Give the backbone structure.
Amino acid sequence: MAIRGALGAPRLTLIREQLMESVVICLAGGTIGMLLSLVATRWMAKTWRDLPSASSIHIDGTVLVFACALVFLTAIMAGLLPALSSTGRSVLAALQASARTVGGSLSRTALRKGLLTVEIAVTVVLLIAAGLLLKSLLQLRSTALHCATDNVLTMVYSLPKRKYDTADKIIAFHERLVDRVSAMPGVLAVGLGESVPGKGEVEEDVFTIPEHPPAKPGNEMLDALVRRADPGYFNALQIPLVSGRFFTRSDTPDATQPERGSKVIINREFARQQFPGENPLGKHLQVLLWSDTKYEIIGVVGDTLHQVNAPVRPTMYFPQLSGGDQDGTLVVRTAGDPLMFAIPIQKQIAALDPELPIANVLTMEQIIGDSLGDLRLMATLVLAFAVLSLVLASVGLYGVLSYLMTLRTTELGIRIALGAQREQVLRLMLLDGLQPALFGLGLGLVVSAAAIRVIQFMLYGMKPLDPLVFALVALTLLAVSILACITPAWRASRLDPVQALRAE
C-alpha cells in the first residue's frame, strides 16, 4: 500500500480495493450462513412447541433483503477501518528500515486487542448463560415429582357423548377397562385420573370451608388445583397416604344415594395452608362454581408437582368414577419396560370399544422430558452461540498473536541473538497473547454477574451467581486461550536470529 501510494495511487482507489476484498469475503460467509439458516429455521420451528404460528415461519424476501443488508453493513464496518488506517499518511513509515519496531507492533495491534477483549467478554457471558441453563435443566430432570416415574405408562382417551350418554355407561366402561388391564401379566398397578403430575395442566376452582368463618369482604378467595382420581390412581403413581383413606368404588354415586360421591381428598400442602393445627378429616369443601354440594374430606395424600419447574400447589382430588367425565388418563405401573405394554393395553381398550381413539401414549419420563422442551431448546441455542463465539475468539487470539509475531520478527531475532532463552521468548509471547483473554475474562465475569438476572426466572434450584459454573467457564476459556496462543508463541521461540535479521 505504501509503494502504491508513493507511486501516485489515489487513496480512494486503495480504500475501494480493500473494501471489495471485505465484501467478497462477507458475501461468501453470508451465502453459507443463509444455506445453514434454512435448516436451522426448520429445526427451530419444529422443536419450539410454544412458538406461535410455527408453521408459517420461513425465509422470505424480507428476510433475504435484511440478511443481505446485514452482510453488506458488516463488510463495510469490517473493511473500512483497516482500509483507512493502511492508506493514511502514516503508512509511508512502512518504507522506512525501522518500521517493524516494538512500539510500532504495539500501536498496530492495540485496536485488534481491544476488539478481541470485547469478543472474549461476550463469549464469557454466553458461556455462563449456557452453563446456568444446562445446570438448571439437569436439576429439573432430576427433580422428584414425589410420585413414581420409572416404569409408568400413561395414555389418554375420550368417550364420545353420543354413545356414552349416561353416568352408568361411563362408569361401567372405566371399571371394565381398569379390571381388564389389572389382570394383564406384568402389570403392578392401574389407575385412572384426569391428568398426571408433571404434565403442566392446570385446572383450578374457588372453594369455601363451611366449618371455617366466612371470608370477609375484600379478602382473597381460596383456590386450589382440581384433579380427578379413581381408587387405584394413588397406588399406581405411589402417592403416599398421609392420613385417612383413598377412594373406593363404594364412593361412586348412584341415583338413590348421591351423597356417596361427595368425597374429596386433599394434599399435604392444602392441609398445611387451610387446616393448620387441626385435623382436616371430616371437614367439608364447597366448590363455588359447581353446586351447593358439600364434599367431605376423607384423606390427605402426599404433595406432587403439577409441573417440574413450579412449586407445590394445594390440590383437591375428586372421584373419577362419578359418571361425569368422558375423558380419562390411564396410568399403568409395570414390572418392566412400560412401552412394551403399550400395544397390549390398546388391544384391551379396542376389545371394549374398537372405535375409541387413543392419544398421548407416553411414559412418565417422556412427559417430564416434553415439559422441559422449551428450556432445553433455549439452553441448546445459547450453548450453540457460546461455542461459536468461543471458536471465533480462539481464532482471533491465534490471528492476533501470529500477526504480532510477524511484526516483531526483528525484535525477537535481536533478543535471541543477544542471549535471550527460547523459554523466555515463549513466555513473553504467551503473556502478550493472553492479555486480551485475561482482560476479556475479567470484563465478562463482571458483566455476567449483572446480565444473568435476565434469565434468572428460567433457573431452578440454583443461584444465578453459581460459583461452579463461573469457575468452569473461566477454566475453559483459559484452556482454549492457551491452546490458541501456544502455536504462534512456539514458532516465535523457534526463530532463527540470522534469518530474522537477514529478512530485515
Notes: Confidence is low (pLDDT under 50) at residues 97-105. Residues 271 and 278 are 9 Å apart (CA to CA). The chain has three domains: 1-96, 102-144+371-504, 160-355.
